[in-house]
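Internal QA ticket QA-208
Title: Verify multi-chain structure generation after dependency bump
Assignee: T.L.

Test input:
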Amino acid sequence: MPPIFDGSPSHVPLPRLDHVVPARAPWSGIVRQGETLRLVDSFGQQAVDTLFYRADDFGERYSAQDTLRAQGAAYLGTGTKLLSNEGRVMLTITADSCGRHDTSAGACSCESNTARFGEETRYLHSCRENFLLEVSRQGMSKRDIVPNINFFMNVPIDPAGDLVIADGLSEPGGTVEMVAAMDVLCVISNCPQVNNPCNGFDPTPIRVQIFPPEGL
Ligand SMILES: [Zn+2]
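Actual output:
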């Protein structure tokens, strides 16, 4: 018997994973070689702090420095190869509705929030704590948290060379897609920051989808 037609176009592959990450929460999962990771900024203006580790050797991980040096540009977008600290391609960005993703400003922490926004904000949850929670589930610790990618986060560089954290540019439903060149562990902190405009002062849920390799 043929499968029951459910109205979806047959050439569009179904994701093997389709998961909503609640506002402020962390997430981690494996993306296999050849699979496509799609991040959806469901409500717009949400910074998605992300790290990648080689799945079978966490000592090899995303390197912001190598990635920026190799591409000779300050932002990530379509065509960017995300390099590891061993200089190997981990993933390639293949689609991007936003046009600007930061990898220079790092992740928010209790310390940086307190310095920026005052002692009364010290108790607030931060990306660094989200990262620590997720990497500790894999046997990693503080020392394994390296400079990250801030998908959908707008960090313009002003004429004096300073980084400016500005209003997010990404629209509701905005997406970024990347194809894995090796098996990777993806670790996400859906940024809980409420004191700067990177989240529009209002953290919102995002969606993580993983699609099988093309042709399968
Ligand atoms: Zn954050």
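Spot checks passed. The first strand starts at residue 17 and ends at 21.
Status: verified.
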